[in-house]
Design goal:
six-stranded mixed beta sheet
Length: 114
């Protein structure tokens, strides 16, 4: 049975940085295109960043040049480096495959506020 655990969220001031991690143990990590998503109350979950099995990367326009997605196959871990954070980045952040194959984890909360 695989396990999906997101971590790294927290409270940060505007302009600050956070690094999110998603450990996907036993979930065939290397077989999938992977993505970070975020959701705020009352809104649909949106795709923030995607990295394919071949290493191609795409970002939501509003996070381009501020966020960086990466992965470590050996550690079965997906990362999201978030710099120059803005209040509008406040959300619950999740990881999953690009086609949402995995059961959703608990997410990690990011709050950007002064």
């Amino acid at each position: 049975q695989g396990q999906l655990v997101e971590s790294g969220g927290g409270l940060v001031q505007p302009g600050g940085s956070l690094r999110l991690s998603c450990v996907a143990s036993g979930m065939f990590f290397s077989a999938y295109d992977l993505a970070w998503y975020r959701q705020t109350p009352g809104s649909a979950r949106e795709l923030v960043a995607l990295i394919t099995t071949g290493g191609s990367i795409k970002y939501l326009n509003s996070v381009k040049d501020r966020f960086t997605i990466s992965k470590d196959r050996a550690k079965e871990t997906l990362y999201l480096q978030m710099n120059s954070l803005k209040p509008e980045d406040t959300a619950l952040y999740y990881c999953n495959t690009a086609s949402n194959v995995w059961p959703w984890g608990q997410g990690t909360q990011v709050v950007v506020s002064s």
